[in-house]
Specification:
heterodimer, A: about 375 residues, mainly alpha, ABC transporter involved in vitamin B12 uptake, BtuC, 2 domains, two-stranded antiparallel ribbon, 4 strands, about 5% strand, B: about 250 residues, alpha/beta, 10 helices, about 25% strand
Chain lengths: ~375, ~250
């Protein structure tokens, strides 16, 4: 691997982890759409800061963008508080308005500078290593890596320091407020982090990938664990896996790295969604199928118990006529009998079914419930 | 006159809460003496939950004030335990029973400090009290409604408060759990705690509680159950809809 390849992958990993950590709390607060809004709405902040500093690498850009991000959250919440519209509509109204202000500012006043829309939306991590940090003439590596590294450390520090507060405010905001933990402050702290992360990351990977990396890995991790701590760690790992596999996918097919990482994020989520034990689609389908047979078996043993020892018992437990009594398809009835025989709930005597001890106990237990 | 000298556990004076211009609570007064088990009853939309939230400083009143042992709530957070409605949180949150109960200690821990072994032990003790010690590591999404309620109660118990405010603790629980919760509330009162409960079931008020507040946006009446829980007061609270209550008293 060439040096620049390592640098690009390292940058991608740092971006992915920095996005995944606050993303966990957004997913749990059902606010992932807010990251989408923030990632677009920060544009006017960046443009205005650019006019002031006339530089694209000024740290003021990040601060201004983060400010606009928090402002977006405030606007959305103000709209919501009127109770005239819901959160999704409030988000849908706010961020295009702010974003378009940014677009108009660029087209009117900054048409000839390097601040183009493609870079905003898609970023280009492949060139991230070209912009390098030099200290006293020494080449210290790509700027993006330092920017995102700093943001990652910031996110990590905030979450480690206020882990307990974030957890309580996310799970039960009213108890957090009653205990004096200022959930609104925590909320805006988190939103500031998301804004800073978004603006730092979108320079490297573009705003679409930022949203993918904020929502994707935490949503994947959410399917895999029942613990908030593990969800954070898994999100970071999954984000890194997405970043590296996305990079090589892009390398192999010679396509956009950001696009490939976003694709891998979706693929890995989809795969997890299918195969994860207990709550994955495959596990659910299996459980449903098993429940279907269990239920049919229960119907069968109850049917047999109800008529046991009565004059009509012989007719009711005739295998060939079962489907008529239970109104089942004949083939289904045959399969159920087979299933119940395998489970030793019933035994077969010539053409008749009789309950075993086990089957009788099962039927009684079901009826008691 | 001795009672007047004793500080009130909760003193609500002229409390008005409004959303926009719609009043939810209109000039409500309430004195809760220490050591009572008080039910707040009233029809839907009477402002019961809002009153609890106003006492806890969770909604901002348009007028009036709330005192806890003669001081504002902010100065008394540590001595007030809160059990919100079970449905107010997301039970799919990735955490387990013990962890939720330990949240009750967060107030005492303060900012940044993490819960440790002492908090864990207190949480286990509280879970034993509510009969949930076998569920410490259980993921909270796997609990039944009654179990969720018990976990919330345990979380309030570890706060080791003097005053407990509970919003509908009997909502959607089975008869066994309801009896267990009542026994727990009465034990709290026996230990000198003050317990305020938003309650829905008029039939059980006289059995479970010794004080009652009848609320319908305005305070209709409050005081000892045998003096306050009268057909006239109930009619004033519920309007004509108390035909089913004829057998009370």
């Amino acid at each position: 691997m060439a040096m620049h390849q390592i640098e690009i992958q390292l940058t991608a990993i740092v971006v992915a982890v920095a996005c995944a950590l606050p993303g966990v709390f957004l997913v749990l607060r059902r606010m992932t759409l807010m990251s989408d809004a923030i990632s677009h709405a920060i544009l006017p902040g960046i443009v205005l800061a650019f006019f002031l500093t006339e530089s694209l690498s000024s740290p003021l850009l990040i601060l201004a963008a983060a400010g606009t991000g928090v402002l977006t959250v405030v606007f959305v919440e103000l709209l919501q508080q009127t109770k005239l519209l819901k959160e999704d509509a409030a988000i849908g109204l706010t961020f295009p308005a702010l974003f378009s202000i940014g677009v108009i500012l660029i087209s009117r006043f900054a048409g000839n500078v390097h601040l183009d829309m493609d870079a905003v939306l898609l970023g280009e991590i492949a060139y991230a290593h070209l912009n390098r940090l030099e200290v006293f003439g020494y080449n210290m590596g790509p700027v993006a890596l330092y920017v995102m590294g700093t943001i990652l450390v910031l996110n990590l520090a905030f979450i480690l320091l206020f882990y307990k507060e974030l957890k309580l405010a996310t799970f039960d905001a009213s108890l957090a407020a009653a205990l004096g933990f200022a959930p609104t402050l925590i909320h805006y702290g988190l939103m500031t982090l998301v804004s800073v992360t978004t603006v730092g990351a979108f320079d490297a990977v573009g705003s679409i990938l930022v949203v993918a990396l904020i929502a994707g890995p935490p949503a994947t991790a959410y399917l895999m664990t029942d613990s908030l701590g593990r969800m954070l760690i898994l999100s970071a790992i999954i984000g890194s896996v997405n970043a590296i596999s996305g990079y090589w996918l892009a390398y192999l097919f010679d396509v956009s790295i950001a696009g490939a990482i976003a694709t891998m994020t979706l693929l890995i989520f989809g795969l997890t969604f299918l195969v994860v034990p207990e709550r994955g689609l495959i596990a659910i389908a299996r459980r449903r199928a098993r429940q279907k047979w269990e239920f049919a078996q229960k119907m069968l043993v109850i049917h047999l118990l109800n008529h046991e020892g009565l004059p009509e018992a012989e007719a009711e437990s005739e295998i060939a006529h079962l489907h008529e009594h239970l109104r089942w398809e004949p083939t289904f009835a045959t399969q159920v009998v087979k299933y119940a025989l395998n489970n030793r709930c019933v035994s077969q005597k010539e053409t008749q079914l009789t309950l075993t001890e086990q089957g009788r106990a099962m039927a009684r237990q079901v009826l008691v419930q | 006159m001795q009672q007047a000298l004793e500080p009130k556990a909760i003193e609500v004076t002229d409390l008005t809460v409004a959303y926009q211009e719609t009043p939810v609570l209109w000039d409500v007064d309430l004195d809760v003496p220490p050591g009572v088990l008080l039910a707040i009853v009233g029809p839907n939309g009477a402002g019961k939950t809002t009153l609890i939230k106003a006492i806890l400083g969770l909604v901002r009143p348009a007028a009036g004030r709330v005192l806890i042992y003669d001081k504002p709530y902010e100065a008394q957070r540590r001595i007030v335990g809160y059990v919100p409605q079970r449905g107010s949180v997301d039970w799919d949150f990735p955490t387990n029973v013990l962890d939720v109960v330990m949240m009750g200690r967060y107030g005492t821990l303060g900012w940044i400090r993490r819960p440790g072994k002492p908090e864990r032990e207190l949480a286990i003790q509280a879970l034993e009290k509510v009969g949930m010690q076998a569920y410490t590591t259980r993921q909270i999404s796997q609990l039944s409604g009654g179990q969720q309620q018990r976990v919330f109660l345990a979380r309030a118990l570890v706060q080791d408060a003097t005053i407990y405010l509970m919003d509908e603790p009997f909502q959607g629980v089975d008869a066994t759990t309801e009896r267990a919760i009542v026994a727990l509330l009465q034990e709290l009162r026996a230990n000198g705690k003050t317990v305020v409960v938003v309650h829905h079931d008029l039939q059980t008020v006289t059995d479970y509680f010794d004080w009652v507040m009848l609320l319908n946006i305005r305070r209709i009446a409050s005081g000892p159950v045998n003096e306050t829980f009268t057909p006239e007061n109930l009619r004033a609270t519920y309007g004509g809809r108390v035909a089913f209550m004829q057998n009370v008293n």
